[in-house]
Amino acid sequence: MTLDLQLRMVLVVACALVDADGRVLLAQRPQGKALAGLWEFPGGKLEAGERPETGLIRELREELGIDVREPCLAPLTFASHGYESFHLLMPLYVCRRWEGIVTPNEGQKLAWVKPRDMRSYPMPPADEPLIAHLIDLL
Ligand SMILES: Nc1nc2c([nH]c(=O)n2[C@H]2C[C@H](O)[C@@H](COP(=O)(O)OP(=O)(O)OP(=O)(O)O)O2)c(=O)[nH]1
Is residue 2 part of a domain? Predict the structure, then answer.
């Protein structure tokens, strides 16, 4: 048995927004943050007491200015990755329907990318195993 002493588990909820052409939205992490410059799925950490779906809907509104209804969020898979100072557990939802126009509200660069082209967009190590799931789905 492996004992993970004082493991800090961080729950981040993320979303693959899929457009009519089967492309997925990636956002570039800004300079000055951990993993700066890498391309990630929109999402973020939950606030205290927040349900995953509610937190994801909030993050999508804050980051991208879009409104997503909870039934439009379908669970796809999750990432479980050990970073140096914490362990990331990240459910990935898929969403094909939203209201509003995707807008980079935090000045982040955005790209709509076919899953088979994602290898050209450097992603955090936690995300790499997720690409195959999106290729299978789309
Ligand atoms: N949103 C998102 N975060 C990811 C992905 N892959 C991945 O390793 N992460 C990590 C990066 C961060 O450590 C964490 C997301 O936290 P966050 O975006 O809410 O917070 P942050 O690090 O930008 O900033 P802070 O709130 O800690 O100051 O999850 C991904 O695809 N999407």
Answer: no
**CA–CA dist 55, 69 (Å, integer):** 12
From 46, 63, 87, 90, the mutation candidate for ligand 1 (largest count of ligand atoms within 8 A of CB) is: 90
pLDDT in tens, 1-56: 566 667 899 999 999 999 999 999 999 999 999 999 999 999 999 999 999 999 99
| Residue 60's CATH number | 3.90.79.10
pTM score, whole prediction: 0.95
Contacts 24+ apart (CB under 8 A), 69-72: 69/97, 72/96, 72/97, 72/98
Distance 34 CA to ligand 1 centre (A): 8
3-state secondary structure (DSSP) of residue 11: strand
Q: What is the pLDDT of residues 85-107, one digit of tens each?
A: 999 999 999 999 999 999 999 99
Whose alpha carbon is nearest atom 12 of ligand 1?
Answer: 34
The ipTM assigned to this model is 0.95
Containing structural domain, residue 65: 9-137
The rounded Å distance from CA 113 to ligand 1 centre is 20
Question: What's the number of domains the chain is made of?
Answer: 1
